[in-house]
Amino acid sequence: MLLANFYNICEMNKIKITPQRVEIFKELIKNNDHPSVTKIYQRLKKKYPNISFDTVNRTLQKFVELGLARVVEDFEDFRRYDGVIENHHHFHCIKCHRIIDVFDEQLKEIEIPEGLKNTFNILEAKIIFTGICDKCKSD
Amino acid sequence: MLLANFYNICEMNKIKITPQRVEIFKELIKNNDHPSVTKIYQRLKKKYPNISFDTVNRTLQKFVELGLARVVEDFEDFRRYDGVIENHHHFHCIKCHRIIDVFDEQLKEIEIPEGLKNTFNILEAKIIFTGICDKCKSD
DNA sequence: ATGTTTGCAAATAGTTTGCATCCAG
DNA sequence: CTGGATGCAAACTATTTGCAAACAT
Q1: From the CA of A51, how many Å to the nearest CA of chain B?
Q2: Would you state the pLDDT for residue A1?
């Protein structure tokens, strides 16, 4: 996502291009380190001491609405527990938030790319499917 | 994970087998619907009105320590944003919490099991690798 | 001009902590 | 008995909301 796209998308959606929004967007894409709201806020506060945490927070949410950004691993915002210890995959329904275990022979051994295997110690590779579940489909 | 294992693991780790722990464990594995603390608390409160939210919360954490349970998609507990819109995978470092984008041709098309494809509307299939990153490996 | 956006402050939700009491071993 | 476990209440953290003032168009 480039800065030029940012302007286009803002105009298309008729949302105002404010200095804060421009700076927040630039900070978001600058080094792609998946920053939190607080991170972006802290970085911007150095250059623009007047910016508020709240604006950063709301702006990032707006960006997600507009398709300019995504929330990292965006599931529910509270902890859930799993009694199944063995490695397995999950399906998340985006409507009812059901989580369904996925056990599949084919997916059991995920091919870990050489680049990754050599650089990091990979402890787990888990597929997370998101979509709409059977119950919610029929609504 | 079975109830018998629960007793064994508690004994092995010399933690007390209290009625609360037994009930919380049974509730966790009963229908494997990935319950939140609040869910388990609410369900148990019907039968055991004296149980406290706090005990449920701490017990579940204890279960994770002992390897009796897992936290679902257990990443950091605050929201992080991604400026990359295109589908891609992530590597999470469990030590420094860096998140690194994984783009890989081989992984681009994840084989979605027929069973899943037929039952749900799958919108995304994303692999989340967890492990220890290059920087943290050398510490 | 005017309706959106901003900054502030207070509220909220989920989780955690401190501590006195209780109970499993 | 005794140290770990429980229940309660208060604290904490991340996020959200309401509102008046400021600004982009």
Answers
A1: 19
A2: 61
